[in-house]
Design a protein that fits this description.
Two copies of one chain form a homodimer.
Chain A (H helix, E strand, L loop, with lengths): L6 H7 L4 E6 L4 H12 L3 E7 L1 H11 L7 E4 L3 H13 L5 E4 L4 H8 L13 E7 L7 E4 L9 H17 L6 E5 L10 H14 L7 E6 L1 H5 L1 H6 L12 E3 L3 H15 L2 E7 L5 E2 L7 H16 L6
Parallel strand pairs in A: 1-2, 1-4, 2-3, 4-11, 6-9, 7-8, 7-9
Antiparallel strand pairs in A: 5-6, 5-10
Helix pairs in contact in A: 1-11, 2-11, 4-5
């Protein structure tokens, strides 16, 4: 079981280097992160975009383009469709966002002809490593679904559990976070958590432990869980923290980074292959870990469900 | 301007000791926190509840009841009404929760005859002190309003600003947190933040700086704010973090405590006097700071608005 994010690098190295199609590749940040992954033997790179722009950036940041395949595309939409198409036609294993807007990349991922759409909801899975803690914490969804329906949440839970299993957590402990440990008539989210919790107990969400509604304290602290009267396999030892609304997910995820200096990695799950969406605000380490996470998940049979 | 929570003790000491009515006072935790405040000259205590139970607890934790007035009440509802009534009749300055459920105390606070109701919305204001930061962070609402309307949010903002002013922040910087720095058609909260933001700019929310929608990163980090293209008086230097939903507030507040070891204090604002609602999960320091916060606010003309 992986307990630190740098172990993602080892995990990704155990498989074949994964072929990553970088959409709109003329991006300093994404290209240098990809180059580090290539240097570590985790990835091979296919750079999709304007060849002359890519050449300029490569020269500027000192990257040898001989290691890469360059695949021309005239604009962002074409670059996104090309990159995604490389994955769906088996010429690449993964797609990664370069210098283009997330919405353009997602449109290509969801494209009915060349896209990577499945019956699952696409969702963001973040993983945080906190100093002094013994395990990684999964957070979902901090970046993709604004206020998912119950059916979408079931899919989001499965996505997170799939990633957790790829990292060696065979039966992930999923906490459905709310502002109360009790079901409150006035707070619909607490009832919805109860529904999902029971759905999980009935085996409808795959091999997981699940419980909720549950506050953050009860999810993570055995003392708080006991004080609040919560028992079972999840309280006090959750692996996956699932929120009901993106605002809570975002605050939780970014709070860990800003208040506690957490290291993080994240990918989009639920498509035929993981989608790597690093952003400029991420640290260099975070970007590399996200690539390693994507590569590890893409190379493994654990990703099947 | 107060920059650390222990300065609340000094601030509270500058005024007269505040008379605190402890509702259902037979509670180890609340009583010992109150006794510390009494010892520091911040408070005087009126213990409302079953005298024999109060006597037993006082003996158990070694508190001298001669320092206190004991006011008998036969059950929790009566204790709550009595304690609140002492404040509304001018015999006490503040009410504090003892061993009774929050809903019973709130029912008394909102009681039309003896209660402390104003035209304002009652809201929770939490203050966090994080290691290595230069200022206190106000979080609202992490505990009281589940999903407030725009009108309620306006009141919640005013409540938080009032408390911030009592602590010497003359024109508090209020960030309306969302999961995006942009207004997204799909995420109504971002539009609502824009509305409140403009309302604040028009001077409708009192003496504050306000801006939103804004992510946590943009609210707190000048670098992130600049990277995300945010300017103005709030981005990167927010004093008050306001969320749209209690789940986000709770995760933010508890996350600071659990992930970053933040010290916290909190009170309910918006009533005629602050309401002190400590909970068992709070540390002893946190309980004392909450009492000091309530006392400082109650004693000051800053609380007028």
């Amino acid at each position: 079981m992986i307990k630190q994010l740098d172990q993602l690098l080892d995990l990704a190295k155990t498989g074949q280097p994964q072929r990553i199609a970088l959409a709109a590749a003329a991006d300093d940040d994404a290209l240098s992160a990809l180059d580090r992954a290539v240097g570590l033997g985790i990835a091979e790179g296919i750079l999709v975009g304007d060849p002359s722009e890519i050449g300029k950036i490569a020269q500027k940041i000192g990257i040898d383009l001989k290691k890469y395949t360059v695949c021309p595309a005239e604009n962002d939409s074409r670059a996104a469709l090309e990159a995604v198409g490389l994955v769906s036609s088996g010429k690449a294993d993964l797609v990664m966002k370069g210098r283009l807007s997330t919405s353009i990349l997602l449109k290509a991922v969801l494209d009915k002809r060349v896209g990577l759409r499945t019956e699952h909801t696409l969702s963001h899975v973040a993983i945080a490593e906190l100093k002094g803690t013994e395990r990684l914490l999964f957070i979902t969804d901090a970046a993709m679904n604004i206020e998912p329906t119950l059916a979408q949440r079931a899919s989001i839970i499965r996505n997170a559990a799939t990633i957790a299993r790829c990292l060696g957590i065979e039966k992930p402990r999923v906490a459905l976070l709310t502002a109360s440990d009790k079901i409150l008539e006035k707070d619909l989210r607490t009832s919805e958590a109860a529904v999902l919790s029971k759905e999980g107990e009935r085996g409808q969400l795959g091999e997981i432990f699940i419980d909720g509604p549950m506050t953050l304290a009860s999810a993570l602290s055995p003392e708080a869980a006991s004080l609040n009267g919560l028992k079972g396999e999840v309280a006090g030892q959750a692996d996956v923290l699932m929120v009901s609304h993106i605002e809570a997910g975002n605050v939780l995820y970014k709070g860990m980074v800003y208040f506690a200096g957490a290291l993080v990695a994240g990918i989009l799950a639920g498509a035929k292959a993981p989608v790597i969406l690093t952003s400029r605000a991420d640290s260099d380490e975070s970007k590399l870990y996200s690539i390693a996470l994507g590569a590890a998940v893409a190379s493994k049979s654990c990703a099947k469900r």
